[in-house]
Amino acid sequence: MYERSQQLFEASLRVIPGGVNSPVRAFRAVGGTPVFIREGKGAWLVDADGNRYVDYVGSWGPMILGHAHPEVLADVVAVAARGLSFGAPTELELEMAELITTSLPSVEQVRLVSSGTEAVMSALRLARGFTGRSLIVKFEGCYHGHSDFLLVKAGSGALTFGNPTSAGVPAELTSKTLVLDYNDPQQAEDAFRRFGPEIAAVVLEPVAGNMNFVRPSQAFVETLRRLCTEHGSVLIFDEVMTGYRVGPRGAQGVLGIRPDLTTLGKVIGGGLPVGAFGGRRDIMARLAPLGPVYQAGTLSGNPVAVTAGLATLKRVLAPGFFDRLAATTVAVTEGLVREARVAGVPFSAASLGGMFGIFFRPSAPSTFAEVMASDKEAFNRFFHAMLRRGVYLAPSAFEAGFVSAAHGPAEIEATLAAAREAFAESRSA
Ligand SMILES: Cc1ncc(COP(=O)(O)O)c(C=O)c1O
């Protein structure tokens, strides 16, 4: 069933490290060989062997309208025909900046980059340049891209500085990053009591999607907002995943919190490489060429990529879009919970907008430790059972899932029919 994918993977292993251009694609977490994707249309993927799948990865978030949306493609083709890149300003970038600043009230000015990693790295440099301080606070289980000082795990003992999680990152570079527990307001209070005047920024996923799916408590985000205000630190919401994915105003709109800076990616590129960071005008004014904080990019604001993003965002911001998307997501997650219950499998799910988590544990987790305590083996069996039945879930128990506007009753029915058998199979294994 996967012969061609297997051949392609073996050939790739010879010329690409691990056979993939981003590690999670290698299926290491779930075992087996990755399926190579040949094409996508709407909610469906077709692999190199011709197998069809309902897609719940959506390129890890960007494909909120589904694959190969005809009007998005038409715009992209038309703009590409006029030139691929100029390295000079274009009207499209202005349009994108106006769309972002009008839809996200906390973002008074915005700069475009080419990836989420770049957006967060630049926002943190800016926060450090603005405050003249060096410490960064992040939270265990949140991922903010692969820049050196963010590849860090908590040090041993409370309120000690982090250790690198990747070889090649000097300990000096993570020694300015404090890693705290998500959803623990008291720990944040303690950290600010001890280090407040040195903290440049607090960065978090305002709904976490890189430790599966975890919602913050209101007390947690309100505490972070208050502490940053009191101590003159910059609160950064990393909305690379949640921006235009959980609602039209991102997680900040849902939570009612105004961050100082916001980072964006994924949906704002509609499947092409676009990232962005923006926020308070006084902070953004510290950025080159106005201020002393340097940041630049040859392909930043690329016209073709921005066009894909604009065509996507305009549809996502249409009235009623998120009501429909959230209803679809809930139909999927509630259906899965129902099927698990029938099969007697301990299982739970949670969602917001077009983003969801499924957990092989009786209730949805609210901490990193609870996520880690879910039954990973049961997930892995379920993942493969679903894949064989034509449902493509994220190949890891610790990733969120994504639904697109192209998912409808037929896709939900196919998913739940597959799940009925997969739960029975994973239980009997
Ligand atoms: C919250 C968050 N921030 C940053 C990134 C990094 O974005 P990119 O992969 O575009 O560099 C990701 C990627 O998954 C993310 O989920």
Compose a concise summary of this entry.
This protein has 429 residues and is an alpha/beta fold.
Task: Describe the model.
This protein folds into 2 domains: about 5-70 and about 320-429, Aspartate Aminotransferase, domain 1 (Alpha-Beta Complex), CATH 3.90.1150; about 70-315, Type I PLP-dependent aspartate aminotransferase-like (Major domain) (Aspartate Aminotransferase, domain 2). It is about 40% helix and about 15% strand. The chain is built from 14 helices and 16 strands. Strands 4-12-11-10-9-5-8 form a 7-stranded mixed β-sheet, sandwiched between helices. It has a 4-stranded mixed β-sheet with strand order 1-2-3-15. The protein has a 3-stranded antiparallel β-sheet with strand order 13-14-16, covered by helices on one side. Helix 2 (about 70-80) runs antiparallel to helix 10 and helix 13 (about 375-390) crosses helix 14. It is globular. The model has no long low-confidence stretch (mean pLDDT about 95). The structure holds pyridoxal-5'-phosphate. Pyridoxal-5'-phosphate (PLP) binds near residues 60, 116, 117, 209 and 275. The site of pyridoxal-5'-phosphate has 16 residues, from helix 4.
